[in-house]
Amino acid sequence: MNPQPTDDSREADDHSGREDSQTAGDPRATYDRIAAHFSKTREYAWPEVESFLDGRSADRALDVGCGNGRHTELLAECARSVVGIDLSRELLREAVSRARERGFDDAADFLHGDAASLPVADDAVGIGIYVATLHHLPARDARVRSLDELARVLEPGGSALVSAWSTAHDRFDRDDGFDTTVDWTLPGGETVPRYYHIYSPAEFDADLAASDLTTVESSVSSGNCYAVVAPLDA
Question: Any stretches that span the bilayer, and where are they (predicted)?
Answer without folding.
Answer: none
